[in-house]
Amino acid sequence: MNDPDQLVSNMSIMEKISLIVGAGFSKIVPGAAGETNPVERLGIPAIVLSDGPAGVRIYPLRLGVNETFYVTSFPNEILLASSWNLELVEKVGKAIGEEAREYGIDVLLAPGLNIHRTPIEGRIFEYFSEDPLLSGEMAASYVQGVQSAGVGATLKHFVAHEQETNRLIINVVVSERALREIYLRPFEIAIKKAKPWAVMAAYNKLNGVYCTQNHWLLTKVLREEWGFEGVVMTDWDAGNDPVEQVKTGVDLIMPGRDEIIRKLLNAFRNGELSEDIINKRVRNLIALITKSLKYKKYNPSNKPSYDEHARISLEAAIEGFVLLENKDALPLKSASRIALFGKGSYWTVKGGLGSGDSYPKYVVSIADGLREKGVIIDEEVERIYRNMVHRWYEYGESTQLYKSMTETALKEANSLLIELLMTHYVYMMIEYIKVMHLPEDAFPDEFLERVAERNDVALITISRISSEGFDRFPVKGDFYLRDDELSLISRISKIFHKHGKKVVVLLNVPGPVEIHSWRNLVDAILVIWLPGQEAGRAVASVLLGETSPSGKLPLTWPKDLYETPSMKLHPGVPKDNPVEVLYAEDIYVGYRYYDTFQVEPAYEFGYGLSYTKFEYDNLVIRNKDSEIEISLIVKNTGDYPGKEVVQVYVRPLRSRLNRPFQELKGFHKTKLIKPGEVEEVTIRIPLDYLASFNGKHWIVESGPYEIRIGSSSRKIKLASVIEITSDICYDTSWKRIKCN
Ligand code: GLC
C-alpha cells in the first residue's frame, strides 16, 4: 500500500465514511465484538476487534464447523495487579495477544484501567487498582505484552467510567485535579510507556459532555497534550451524536450501524462535517490497518499454544493470591484430609461476566486441583454439595430453561443456533448466580462433629460473581455474607476448633466482601479473586506450600462498605435511577482517603502475608536532578523461599496544596529469594511523579518529603527525608514552565 496520504486522497467520501463506521459484530471471527468495513478496491482489509482482558472472547463453537475455538481463561486484572509483577503481567498480555493472533483478531479490546473507586463496581474485576500508578504501570506492561504478538491493544474506558449503574447516560462530575491525578493518570502512563494502538472512549458523560463527544478529552488532552497517535473508538453504541463524535475526536464508531453512515454522509453534504476532519480520522484508521495482521496477510492457525498459555495462566493466578490471615494454618501438609465446604469449592468462579468473560475448555475447580495433588477430600461432604446442585439441575428451574432453549435451538437449526449457544453462556451466567445462592448451612452440628473428627482441616470457599452492566449489590449475598454463609463459618469454626483442627477460608470474589465481622473466627484467609481456568491448581500450589503467597492488595479492603468515601454518593442522584454522580471525594480515593483521614480499613492497600519473612536494610537515597534513586536490600529471614513487593510511598511533610498523606510512587517485585538470601533493589522515581495538579498546571512543591519504604502502605520498614529546594512546574504536556 502506498503512503496513507496518497491512499486517503484516492478514496471516495463514501469509502472514507464506511471506514469510520464499524461493520457490526464480526462475521470473520464469530463471537468477536467488532469488525471494520474493507475497501477492497484499494486493498484495505476488514480488521477484527475482540474482547477481553481475561482472554480472547469468541464463540467456542461455530455452526457447521466441527472444530472448536476455546480460549485460555486467564486471571482477571484485579488478580494480575495483586501480583505487583510487571514482567508477569507482560507475559500474560503476550499470551493473550498470541491467542488473539491465532484466532484472527487484529485488535484486542483490553486492558480496562478505570479506578477502583468503590468496592462494588460491577467491573472491578476487569480493572487493576484504586491507585493510578499501579494501574498505569500494569496496563503498560499488559499492552507491551499484547502488542509484542502483533495484535493491537485498546485502553478502556476513557475516562471516569467507575460504575455500571446507568453507565450509558450517567454524567460524572469530577474536578480537573482529580481527573488528572487519579482518573486520567493511568491512561497517560500507559500511553507514554506502551503506545497502545487504540483507546476506547467511555459511555458516560464527563462534566456534562459524553466522553465520545468531548473535544477537551479526545483532542486537547489525549492528542495535543499527550501526543497519542493511535485510533480512538467509541464504546459499543456509546453517545448520541455520531457527527459530534467524529468532529470532537472519534476515528471509529463501533459497532457501527447503517443509519450512522447516512447521518455522517448528510453532515458532510450539508457542510457540518468537513472533509478535512474526515481525512484526519481516516488517516488514523489507515495507520492502524496497515499495522494489522490482516493487512500483513497473516494466516491464523486457530490452534493457539494452549498448554503454554495454561502454564502462564496458572503462574499468574498463583502470584496474585493475597494471604490476609494465617494463624499457623498454612501451608497444609500434602497428605491432609480436607473437609471442603462452599459451592465454589466444586464450581469455582473463574471470571466475571459480560464482555470481560472468556470461554475456556475447562475450569479446574478447587476440589479437582487439590485431588490432583493427592489431597483426600471428604466424600460425604462432597456428595452433599453435588446432590444439592444436582437436585437443582434435575429439578430446579434450570432444567426447564435449558430444555426449552435447547429445543428451540434444535428446532431452528440455523444461524440463530449460534446466538442460542451464546445464550447458553448467558444461561451459564444464570446458573452461576443461582448456584451461588443455594443455602450453605445444610449440615447439622452432629454431622459436622463427625466430619471434624475424621479430617485434618476445614476449607470453606465463599464465591461471588459480578458482571458488566450491573454494579455489585450492598446486600447479603453480595458484598455482605448471607446468614447461611456466616452460620456455616461460625459453626464449622466452633466444632473444628473443639477438635483442635484449623479452618481456612478462600475468597473467590471479584472484589472485597465484608470480612471484619467474621475474620477472627477462622485461622487463615486467602483471597483467590477470579483466578481463571487453572483456579484449583493455583489454590493447591499455594495451600500445599509449593509456592508461598506473594500477592498484595491493589485496593483498600474496608471494614464496612460505607466507610468508603465514594459510597456516600454512589451510584448518583436520583438514587433509584441516577443521571449524575459527583466524585465528591475528589483525589481522596482509596488509601489516599483512609491514610489522610486516619480511618482504619480491614486490610490496607498493599497488604499481603507470606509464608516467610523479609527484612529491609541499607537504604540509600540519591536525590538526582530528574529522579530520586532508592536502593536497599531485602533479606529473607524466614524458612520459606518467597517473593516480596517493595513499595515506595512519598509523603509531603509540608505543602501549600491539600495533598494526600502519602502516595505510591514506585514499587518492585523481587525474584524468588531463598531463606537467608538477599536481593539488592533499586527503584527510580522520576521527579515529576511528585507533582500535584493545582488547577492550572503541575507543580512539585519545594520542601521536605518523607520517602517511605514499606511492605504495605501502613507497614513502613525504612524511611528517609529528602528536600526539594525550589518549586518545579510543568504544563499539562509536562514541559517545564516558570512557576508563577
Ligand atoms: C461493551 C463494553 C466494552 C467492550 C465492548 C465490546 O459494552 O463496555 O468494554 O469492549 O462493549 O464488547
Describe what you observe in this structure:
By secondary structure, the protein is α/β, with parallel strands linked by helices. The protein has three domains: 286 residues, Alpha-Beta Barrel (TIM Barrel); 191 residues, Glycoside hydrolase family 3 C-terminal domain (Rossmann fold, 3-Layer(aba) Sandwich), CATH 3.40.50; 126 residues, Immunoglobulin-like, CATH 2.60.40. The protein is globular and about 80 Å long. It is built from 21 helices and 27 strands. Helix 2 packs across helix 11, helix 4 crosses helix 5 and helix 12 crosses helix 20. About 1% of the residues have low confidence. Helix content is 32%, strand content 18%. The two termini are 50 Å apart. The strands form six sheets. A six-stranded mixed sheet has the order 1-2-3-4-6-9. The site of alpha-D-glucopyranose has 8 residues, from loops.
How far apart are the first and last residues' alpha carbons, in Å? 50 Å
Strand content: 15-25%
Cofactors and ligands: alpha-D-glucopyranose
Summarize the main sheet. Answer: 6 strands, mixed
Topology:
Elements lengths: L3 H7 L2 H8 L13 E2 L12 E3 L26 H7 L2 H17 L4 E2 L23 H17 L3 E7 L12 E3 L2 H8 L1 H10 L3 E4 L3 E2 L2 E2 L4 H11 L5 E4 L7 H7 L9 H12 L5 H15 L16 H15 L1 E5 L10 E5 L1 H4 L19 H7 L3 E2 L1 H17 L1 H15 L3 H22 L8 H10 L2 E7 L19 H16 L3 E7 L15 E4 L7 H9 L36 E3 L8 H6 L17 E10 L3 E10 L8 E8 L10 E7 L8 E9 L5 E2 L4 E3 L2 E8 L5 E9 L3 E3 L5 E2 L3
Parallel strand pairs: 2-3, 3-4, 4-6, 5-7, 5-16, 6-9, 11-12, 11-13, 13-14, 14-15
Antiparallel strand pairs: 1-2, 7-8, 10-15, 17-18, 18-21, 19-20, 19-24, 22-23, 23-26, 24-25, 26-27
Bound molecules: alpha-D-glucopyranose.
